[in-house]
Write a structure and sequence with these properties.
Length: 860
Amino acid sequence: RGEDVTVLRDEGAEAEAAGVTLLGAEPVVSVRLLDHPARMVATLRRGGDGGLELASTLVADDREWQVGAGSLVGEPAHGVALLAEGELVVGPLAVPLDGAARSLLVRHRLLEIPAEDAATFAAGFLPSLRRALALEEAPGLDLPEPAPPVALLQVGFGQEHTTVLHWRYRYRVGDRVIDLGPDPRPSDPPVRDPAAEDALRAVLPEEDWAGWTDQLGHRRLRAESTLTGAASARFVTDWLPRLRELPGVEVELSAEPPRYRRATDAPQITVGVSESAGTDWFDLAVTVSVDGEQVEFRELFAALARGDEHLILDSGTWFSLDRPELDQLRRIIDEARLLQPDGAAGLRLRPEHAGLWEELVSLGVVAEQSRSWRAAVGALLDDAELPADAVPAGIRAELRGYQRLGYRWLGYLWRAGLGGILADDMGLGKTLQVLSVVVAAAERGELREPVLVVAPTSVVGTWAGEAARFAPGLRVRTVDSTAGRRTHTLAELRADADLVVTSYTLLRLEGEDYASGGWAAVVLDEAQFVKNRATRIYKAVRRLSAGVKFAVTGTPLENNLMELWSLLSITAPGLFPDPERFAELYRRPIESGSDPGALARLQRRVRPLMLRRTKEAVATELPPKQEQVLEVTLEPGHRRIYDRHLAAERKRVLGLVDDLDRNRVAILRSLTSLRQLSLSPALLEPGAPAQSAKIDALVELVSELAAEGHRALVFSQFTSFLKLVRERFDEEGIAYSYLDGRTRDREARIAAFRGSDQPAFLISLKAGGFGLTLTEADYVFILDPWWNPAAETQAIDRAHRIGQDKPVNVYRLVSADTIEEKVVALQRRKRDLFDSVMGRGGDLAAPLTADDIRGLLDLD
């Protein structure tokens, strides 16, 4: 071992100095220590045929030694043990020898290097030999020095705008060229210079076709890449000239590069629509051109759908796809494709799609537009183009300006065979506008079949009364009972009627009878009754055969956007044919806020088929409406009862709210009990005192306003609480009328209030939410807030509507520090969706979410 040799040398020298003789066994006669460390000497000289010779020997004590495999001690070798003529010579090596040097010294004492390999040897081996050995070079030896490597890019061009790239490292040693792959291999000639290769990679662009980054964060050269289409054009146009100028980069081309040209002008979009023979559809044509060259439509949309950044034309012209108008065009065309009838080729539109056409037109120029299409959609997009229809002579009323516009709009839809939604605010005379259209059709002789009006049961009589008042010439028949209890069949009523008025309940029960014959038109009053597409009444309305269908409602959506879809699927079934696609494109993005543009798109699609005006915008003569929240503090005894129940309900709901769908009924029951307790303990605990700070406050307010000659409408969700109010009013001697869902003589109660000076009309919120005009009252009291603010707005508008000549004051009585305060806060949050979709003036209450419920009970 090497250390043994060192010990032998050091300690042996001391022993000899002390007179000790070193002896060896056979065949070693004597042992001698080297005076100086042995060293390997390599000599490089010119050999035969122009080659080189590398001769290696061991020099020790001024003598050259022949070295065998056993002469070197250690790995790597640190010492020598040399046997010559019975003498063992031992000593250390001046420089340890690794495997390569050891092999040269023992096995390749004379290494012959052919002339053709001399350059490779000089570039790959010689530098390391000089560092590792005492290398002696013969005088006059002229060896080639290796040049620094370059990054070699070999570029090939294929069909259909394909470019293939191969990267290599190129080394030159003398006249020899050595191309090596990006990743070292054991078979590579030993010419690689890792530091130089690193420096070359740092010069190259950080494009995917040039290299990639490994898991350790090191940049690596990419051996091969294939670029197609616009990527190929971009490389040839932008990168190839730059790469040729980069220091340390060589580019070899397999052929002359294709000619590409980057377009600088923006794409030009042209749209057109023409007749489609034999149908009520119109053929849609969309073309895109760049610098005068037409772009193949399918290729363009495929590139946009893939998210490509550029597109190349067959001519070699290429352009950026990063343009908002192109992305918008793709989205519009994708939407248009969803509207196509089964088996339709190409793209087609119906007049219901006027909003989509308008958006297409905004992107470019109109190349052509058939006269029929223009006539079908012109007025839908611009009410200035509505025909100037005169109000029919049979209408006994002076229509206001906005009512005349609504009449003309409905009439236009009627004649075009299109349905629509009249979504004016409550109290703006929607019934009068509809009656005017029906009378006009009758005077034109177009009522070969009657018009069917479907309304809430409580409003059927109101329709008959309004028709008798404003359109006395119409033959009106009402259906107020089932077939078994009527004296006339539906067919008999139809035969002698211009207008048939029935209820949603009767239509649901006898849908087959109503669907057995055709109707000139179907009018759905308070159309929110068909907002749920899963109900029987919705399906019954869809089965009705009619020339057109109109929805009339101030609240076309109350809970979510699918309710709006339900109304549109009835009135304009071709607009959004697929509910799931509608939810994907509009409902979820709008309600979640994930796509800010979805709301604007929906508004543009719906606008041509929905007319909505708010009272603030059109009924400027209406007196102001003041709304105020009055906080009422619970009595101490009432507070203790409420707090006790609150703690119990919190604990109960906390265990239910995480599975809201399964436990919704139980949770709403708990919330309702707390709402009732906010009014009076007597509503929940039998025998509890009927104390109520709200009733005390109401009595005081009604008494005060009655003394000043004012009258009030008083609303509550709970008839049980209205009973307590009645009992207290009786005690106080306050005169009132009363109406709830069980009231049979509804019209008589309403007439009694109108014809008297009673200061109060007590009404359940459900029974009085629509079908009432009570402008005799100028005060409104909401005794208990409801998380659907649309119901409250409907109630308030019983007084604040056309015909009111006094300011209307609205008071919401809210029990302080109870669930009612949280309900009021929830109402504010729930208004935003309706206001954003429909415009200001309406309300929306989406279904209670788990977060809503936690907020109501402070469970966060």
